[in-house]
Structure formats: C-alpha cells, structure tokens
Design goal:
Blueprint (H helix, E strand, L loop, with lengths): L2 H22 L1 E6 L14 E3 L21 E2 L2 E2 H9 L4 E4 L23 E2 L7 E2 L5 H11 L2 E6 L6 H12 L5 H8 L10 E4 L12 H13 L11 E8 L3 H10 L7 E8 L14 H28 L6 E9 L18 H16 L4 E7 L9 E4 L2 E4 L1 H8 L7 E3 L1 E4 L2 E4 L2 E4 L1 E7 L5 E7 L6 E6 L8 E6 L19 E2 L3 E4 L2 E6 L3 E7 L1
Parallel strand pairs: 1-22, 2-5, 2-13, 5-8, 8-9, 9-10, 10-11, 11-12, 12-13
Antiparallel strand pairs: 1-17, 3-4, 6-7, 14-15, 16-20, 18-19, 20-21, 21-27, 22-26, 23-24, 23-27, 25-26
Bound molecules: alpha-L-arabinofuranose.
C-alpha cells in the first residue's frame, strides 16, 4: 500500500473514530427531584420460595434434627444472610406448586400429614413436613412479610377462605380453633395473598375471561378477619407480553376486590435452548440482557393498560416472578432448576431493580425467582456449606433504595453493541432516604468497555460521595463452594465530584452504588 495513502487513511480513520468513541463511552444523567416522586417500596426487593427442587427441603429447611445449625429446622446461616439484605417479603408455596397445594396437608402432627407427589417439579415425594406454621414462623424469624399464593387451579373457594381464616382470625371459629390446637395462639396476620398462579398455564390453562370471573368469586370470600392492615389480593398476571390478559382483568375485576395485578417475566435466551449457566458466550450474554431489559417495555405497556382502567393508580403492578433462567447444572435433576449464578446474573439483577425503582409509582412489589438453590438464587447450599451469589450482593448494595423517595432521572447512554445489534449500556436509578442521603445505582452491562458517566446533581445539596462496586474479571465468574468469596462488593473511588457534577468510570459489566452526603 502507498505510504502517503496509508497515513492519510489512518488519520481519516482515527479522526472519524475519535468522536464516535468518545460519544460512545459517555453517559449522562440528570437527576431531577420533584415534589410528587413516589416511594420505592421495599417490597420491590421481595423473594420467592417454592416447593421446587432444593429450595425448601435442603435449602431453607434441613429439619430440627439436622447437624446444620438451625432454628425450628431452618438453617441459621440462611436466616442471617436474608436478614442482612433486609428481605421485605417472601412468596410461598409456589409458583406452579401453589395450584396443586392443599394447605391442610401441611398442618398438624407430622405422622398425619400425607405424602404427595410434587407433580410439577421432578415427581419427587413431598412429605408436607414444611407447612403453614413452619413458613409463617420462618417469616417472623426473618422479620419479613409473608406472601401466600392460594390454590385456585385445583382448590376450592372454601379451601382458600379457610386458609385466610386459619392464619388471620383471633376469635372463636373452626379454623382459628384448629390453629390453636396446632400450637399457635395468635394469628400471624397475613396481608399478601396471591389468588392463583399463572392461571394461563400451570394454574389451569384458563382464558383471562374465565379467570377474571373465578377471581371475583375467590376474592369475595377472602375476608381480612383480624388483620389490621386488611388483605392485599393479587390477581395472577400476564405471561410477559400478553397484554390482553391485563386488559381483561382490569376491565372485569371490580376495584374493591383487587389490590395488585401480577406479571411474570424471565430473562431467557430461548425456552427450547436456554444455554449454560456458566459456560456462555458473549452472544448468549447479550441475548439474556436483551430479555432482561425487555422488562422496561413490558412494564410500560402493562401500566398503560392499567392507567386506562385505573387512572387514580389504586391497583399495583406486582412482578412476582423475575430473574435469569438457564439449563440446569449438568448432573442435576432437570425438574429441580438448579443453576449457578455469575456476573451475568448480577447484571440482570442490577438492571431489573433499576427498572423497578424507576417504575415505583405503579410497581409496588417484585419477587426474584428464587431464594435458594433454584433459578437466580441469592444463596446456594451443599451440605453444611452455603455460598452467597453475585445476585445476593446486588440486593445487599441496593438495600439503600428500600422505602426511599425516588429521584427521577433523565439518562442518555451509549450503546453496548454486538454483531450489529445494540442495547443501552448504562442503566441507573436514584433515591433519597429518610436520613437525607442520596443513592445512585449504576450498571454498565457492556461486556468489553468501561463507560464514563457524568451525573448532574446540582439540584441537590451534596458535599461528598462514597461508592461500592461489584465487578470481576470475567462475565462467567461466580462464587463456588471452593472459592466462596471470589465476588464481593468492594469500595470504589474512581470518580470525581466537583461543583455538583459527578464523573465516574464504570468498568465493563460492573455495578456501582454511590452514597452522597
Ligand atoms: O419459578 C419457577 C416456575 O416458573 C414457577 O413455578 C412458575 O410460576 C413459573 O413458570
């Protein structure tokens, strides 16, 4: 090649590339406090534990006789770990299992409890040793709100209304008396109730019209009894983008019977080929993140329908199942949904929680699927060992947003590009807590590039910042039983704060949470 031509074209190339690169790696956030900003409900940081695989048995519950330190059969290390992330609520007993579950099978003397087959998850024997008392006492030990999912698919109206009476009635009644006979004097006062789960699928393959009618019937017979907070009834919601489902429910269920409408969305590459949990390519990572970020569009569209029927914003959107879903770990039962948890999961968690925070005027609860040993778990157990996953640490870093006031933001972000496709590289949310501290959570999902983010905070009176980062060398990195502390949050100071403007470099696939005082 001619030298002059080469140099010339090099200069042209460099000249053309420079501004694009600069533009490409610069995100800009304007924080815009308003007087009417919503509170970010702590319930957005909720969890979910189903009778599935090693979630309850061998996850939470090891039994009182276990050598693993436990409280009433529930492992102490897990209780402590969940308390440390201020677990606000726990959904139980399913999932699909909920619509096969008959709660009376799980109360009273163990020898009288029937052993059943868990038909949804691995066909294993369910001996019902973990039942209503175990779960609600666990919630008390955790200091968390229980969220009970009622059986509509194969149960009856009486069965569900009796369950409510059993856990919420203080006076004399058949169910309150039975509870006392079983050793519990005071009701637990359960507020959150799911009226069936995935009624379009495992809950009974219903049409939305049929379910809306059934919902009205079930909800009518659910009385609050002595629960001073009243009942919060959640209708089984849409499968992802089934907007018609939300439309029919909102149109046909009277407001006095409904407090929340659910939505389920998993970050999945392809339901027929979900890919490995740890040995994934960048292409697979990109597709997973595309699916995770789709949550924003889903919420916008479902909320638009809710706005039409409920302009006063009285009914909430409850994303009671979300998270990454991959093929199970090799050698494990396919029905147990056991998967490892990598930096990819941390990216899903950070970006999804930012989405929920930014929609906190309508999204009042979300439940990560699932707490331990199933799907995007925060903890994994093996015998007496327990490890905490990158997702756990994201939830820990984000506790600062619990019940804080949202600071609305305007975000301009560079793209994360791969094979001609693109995604927004940066996601963010901000809040101010009761003590007046400002928190900003920033996620850079780009697999290769660090990104510079400038945040204009001139409207807030902040003097200084501290920051924490979650990052690792490889996207596939994870904590293992051999190396349980490989990924943990660390303090971070690669930022400048001058005249109300923060400039911060976010490394590739990392999460930074800043605290401004
Ligand atoms: O979380 C696993 C399963 O996913 C739940 O049981 C069901 O509701 C959903 O399809």
């Amino acid at each position: 090649m001619n030298k002059i031509y080469f140099l010339g074209s090099l200069i042209v190339t460099l000249f053309c590339m420079q501004p694009i690169q600069a533009q490409n790696s610069q995100a800009n956030i304007q924080v815009k406090p308003t007087d009417d900003a919503p509170i970010i409900s702590k319930h957005i940081y909720g969890h979910f534990a189903e009778h599935l695989g090693r979630s309850i048995y061998d996850g939470f519950y090891v039994g009182k006789e276990s050598t693993i330190p436990n409280t009433d059969g529930v492992r102490n290390d897990l209780i402590e770990a969940l308390k440390a992330i201020k677990i606000p609520n726990l959904r139980w007993p399913g999932g699909c299992f909920a619509d096969t579950y008959h709660w009376m099978d799980g109360i009273g003397a163990q020898e009288d409890r029937p052993a059943i087959v868990n038909t949804w998850w691995g066909g294993v024997t369910e001996d019902n040793s973990f039942g209503t008392h175990n779960f609600l006492n666990l919630c008390e030990a955790l200091g968390t709100e229980p969220y009970l999912a009622g059986n509509v698919g194969s149960g009856t109206v009486k069965e569900l209304s009796d369950w409510v009476q059993y856990v919420n009635h203080n006076g004399t009644s058949p169910m309150a008396d039975l509870r006392r006979e079983n050793g519990r004097e005071n009701p637990w006062e359960v507020t959150y109730w799911g009226v069936g789960n995935e009624m379009w699928g495992c809950g009974g393959n219903m049409t939305p019209e049929y379910y809306a009618n059934l919902y009205r019937q079930y909800a009518t017979f659910m009385s609050a009894w002595d629960n001073k907070a009243g009942l919060y009834r959640i209708a089984s919601g849409a499968n992802g983008s089934d907007y018609n489902w939300t439309e029919v429910l909102m149109k046909n269920i009277p407001k006095n019977l409904l407090e929340g409408v659910a939505l389920h969305h998993y970050s999945v590459i392809d339901w027929n080929n979900k890919g490995s949990d740890v040995a994934f390519t960048e292409e697979q990572y990109f597709t997973t993140m595309k699916s995770a970020l789709f949550m924003d569009e889903l919420i916008n569209k479902h909320v638009a329908i809710m706005d039409k029927y409920d302009p006063q914003n009285e009914i909430d959107l409850i994303v009671d199942e979300w998270g990454g879903w991959y093929e199970v770990q090799e050698g494990t039962n396919p029905g147990f949904l056991y998967q490892q948890n990598t930096m990819r999961d941390a990216m899903i968690a950070g970006a999804s929680l930012n989405i929920f925070n930014n929609h906190s005027n309508r999204v009042k609860m979300a439940n990560l699927a699932q707490t331990v040993n199933v799907l995007q778990a925060v903890a994994l157990t093996k015998g007496d060992q327990m490890i905490l996953t990158p997702t756990y640490y994201v939830l820990k870093m984000y506790t600062v947003h619990h019940d804080a006031t949202l600071l609305p933001i305007e975000l301009k972000t560079p793209d994360y590009t791969l094979n001609g496709d693109k995604l927004p590289a940066i996601s963010a949310s901000a809040s101010k807590d009761a003590a007046g501290k400002t928190h900003i959570s920033l996620v850079n999902i780009d697999a290769k590039k660090e990104n510079m983010v400038t945040v204009d905070l001139s409207k807030l009176n902040i003097k200084d910042f501290t920051a924490t980062i979650l990052s690792s060398d490889k996207l596939q990195d994870h904590n293992s039983f051999d190396n349980p502390n490989k990924i943990q949050p660390k303090s971070f100071n690669d930022f400048k704060f001058k005249k109300g403007v923060l400039e911060i470099k976010i490394p590739a696939f990392s999460i930074v949470v800043l605290e401004g005082n």
